[in-house]
Structures are given as C-alpha cells and as structure tokens.
Design a protein that fits this description.
By secondary structure, this protein is mostly helical. It has 2 domains: 13-228, no CATH class; 231-357, no CATH class. Helices cover 63% and strands 5% of the residues. The protein contains 13 helices and 6 strands. It has helices at 2-6, 35-39, 47-59, 81-112, 117-142, 150-156, 164-191, 204-223, 232-255, 257-262, 267-282, 297-315, 321-343; strands spanning 12-14, 17-18, 30-33, 159-162, 288-289, 348-349. A two-stranded antiparallel sheet has the order 1-2. It has a two-stranded parallel sheet with strand order 3-4. A two-stranded antiparallel ribbon has the order 5-6. Strand 1 (12-14) and strand 2 (17-18) form a beta hairpin. Helix 5 (117-142) packs antiparallel against helix 8, helix 7 packs across helix 9 (232-255) and helix 9 (232-255) crosses helix 12 (297-315). The protein is globular. The structure holds fe (ii) ion (FE2) (2 copies). InterPro entries: AcsF, Ferritin-like_SF, Rr_diiron-bd_dom. One of its GO terms (molecular function) is magnesium-protoporphyrin IX monomethyl ester (oxidative) cyclase activity. Pfam families: Rubrerythrin (PF02915). One of its GO terms (biological process) is photosynthesis.
C-alpha cells in the first residue's frame, strides 16, 4: 500500500502498457523519406569506404551483448517517487528514439532491397541493432511494471517527411549524439559505481559502439553524395540541424535534471560535454560546426529553458485556451528570437581541415 503511494501513476493504455508520452516539439520524431530518390543514389564516389562500413555492421559485434544478467532479477521498488518517474521517462524516451530508428531503417531496407542492395543491406543491419536496443529498453521498462506497445506507437505516431539529404544530416547527428550520451554516462558510472542505480548502464559501452558505427555509416553515405556537403546550402542546413539537435537535447535534459542527478551527474556539465564532443565529431564530415564556445551560446539556451518553464506553468492553469495562448505568445516569440540569434552566431568553417588525417 505504502509502496503504491510512493509510485508515480502513469496513464495506462491497458494494464502495464504505458500511454506514450504526449508528442511535442521536443519528443523523439518518426521519419519517412523519398524512397525513390534514395534508391537512385549512386554510391561510386565513396563506395570502398561505404562497403567497409557495411562489412563492419555485418560482423555483428554485439550479437551476444544484450543479454539480461542476474542483476536485473530483483525488485526495483526502492527506486521510487520522483526518481522513479524520471527514470521511467528516460527509458521511454530512449526506447522511442531507438524504435523510431528501427522503423526508419527497416522501411528503407525494404524499399531499397531490389534497387540499391548495398544501401539496403546497411539499413537492414542497423535496424537489427536498433530493434535490439529498443527491445532491451522496453524490457527494462517492464522491471518498473510498464512497457510500451510498439505496434501501437508505429500506427499512432505522426511521421515527419524529410528529403534524403535531411534524413542524413538528422540521423547522422542523432547517432553521434547518442554515442556521446551513452559513452559519457558509461564513463561517469564506471568511475562512480555507487551511482549506478540500475544495471542497464553497464551495457552502454558496447551499445554506444553500435551508435558510433551507425553514425559512421551516415558519414560514409554523405561522402558518396558530395553535393550534400559542399555548397553554401549544405553549410546553412548543417548549421540548422546542429542547432536543432543541440537545443532539443539541452531543453529536454535540463527539464529532467532530476534524472541526471539521480545518477550523480551534473546535468549542465553533461550537456556541455556531449554538445562539444558531438560538434567536434560532426566537423569531420560537415562543412561547418557551431561555435559552442561563443559567450552567448549557453545563456541564450538558458533563456529558452526559462521560457519553457513559463510555458509549462501557463499550460498547467485552468485558464481558457485563448487566454493561455495569449499568455504564451511572448515566450514563444522570445524562443524564436533566441534560436534565430543562436543560428546567426558565426559558425566555424571545417572545409580547410577536411582531407587531413581523420
Ligand atoms: Fe540504437
Ligand atoms: Fe543507432
């Protein structure tokens, strides 16, 4: 009885099946793309490197990695209250993000199978990994007596259409940022085992190598299409995607500081590390990266954090909808202004360093 009082209530679709978190601009997105354009892509410019990456994926290094050990076999009721809530949210977000990768890669592999077999195989192998990741996270959710109905999620979510070029920028970044997130958490918990609340974090080392390989796959794939990387439009779009990926993560995570603190991390320090590393990594293939050391970079993101707090506070009142909208307007405008100003911070040109040892 006492236990159930301490457990935060989650809305359920059916007993034990969690209602998916409400979709917002900050929740993981599901993508679809122009399959014909993708099928017609000529890989010859960078085919050798690309083939080598597909061969790496074929090796399936993590075939035996995702096996739950004894440490999972215990009650997790001692993770309770707010910690339990943020923990379950973390698992859900991660599971949704992994699953959205699975769906996209699987669909691509099916649609390209006959027309672009090498590309199709790469996507098939990555979907294998993402299915494992999502399944492992969903199993973890079941330790908290919840799970996600992935079939329901497939049907109920809205899909965002992106041209292949934008799929490449966005998924490349989400794989690399995923890599840096997992590895940073892993290293921290390796140094501070007392903060390792739950055994899933032990798996993050080999796990993040999957994400790293996925990122490298897109790196090599983008190099087969140099027109996606070498003109002024590419510079503007890379800037846009870098900023949106960083801002989304920052706003999401700062809102969930409790989770990072529960595993002994300083959330802001964590953000600085992940953003800096991902930015640096992206510079190996993107023509520009962001100047994240610029004195205005984080203060502007912090203004957005405050705006979002205000937006949520307004949302939680009982005021009529139009009053809420009116009250929210200045915060939306301010967010727009902050993001525009962030976008116009002069980026760092990377084209001169390309071609040197990677
Ligand atoms: Fe993954
Ligand atoms: Fe991945």
């Amino acid at each position: 009885m006492v236990d159930s009082l301490k457990k935060p209530g989650f809305e359920e679709l059916r007993p034990g099946i969690k209602v998916p978190a409400k979709e917002t601009i900050l929740t993981p997105r599901f993508y679809t793309t122009d399959f014909d354009e993708m099928a017609q892509m000529d890989l010859s410019v960078n085919e050798e490197e690309f083939e080598a990456l597909v061969a790496e994926l074929r090796n399936d290094y993590n075939r035996h990695h995702f096996v739950r050990d004894q440490e999972f076999e215990q009650s997790w009721d001692h993770i309770d209250g707010e910690t339990r809530k943020v923990f379950v949210e973390f698992l859900e977000r991660s599971c949704t993000a992994e699953f959205s990768g699975f769906l996209l890669y699987k669909e691509l592999s099916r649609k390209l199978k006959d027309r672009n077999p090498l590309l199709a195989e790469g996507f098939e192998l990555m979907s294998r990994d993402e299915a494992r990741h999502a399944g492992f996270l969903n199993k973890a959710l079941s330790d908290f007596n919840l799970s996600l109905d992935l079939g329901f999620l497939t049907k109920s979510r809205k899909y965002t259409f992106f041209k292949p070029k934008f799929i490449f920028y966005a998924t490349y970044l989400s794989e690399k940022i995923g890599y840096w997130r997992y590895i940073t958490i892993f290293h921290h918990l390796n140094a501070h085992p007392e903060d390792r609340l739950y055994p899933i974090f032990k798996f993050f080392d080999n796990w993040c190598q999957d994400e790293n390989r996925h990122g490298d796959f897109f790196d090599a794939l983008m190099r087969t299409q140099p027109q996606f990387l070498n003109d002024w439009k590419a510079k503007l779009w890379c800037r846009f995607f870098l900023l949106s990926v960083f801002a989304t993560m920052y706003l999401n995570d700062i809102q969930r500081t409790d989770f990072y603190e529960a595993i002994g991390l300083n959330t802001r320090e964590f953000e600085y590390t992940v953003i800096e590393k991902t930015n640096e990594t992206a510079g190996r293939v993107f023509p520009i990266i962001l100047n994240v050391q610029h004195p205005e970079f984080y203060p502007r993101l912090e203004t957005c954090v405050k705006n979002n707090e205000n937006l949520r506070a307004i949302d939680s009142t009982n005021a009529p909808k139009f009053v809420k909208t009116l009250k929210k307007l200045p915060y939306y405008i301010s967010n727009g202004v902050q993001l525009a100003k962030l976008y116009f911070i002069k980026p760092i040109d990377m084209t001169t360093t390309h071609g040197q040892v990677r």
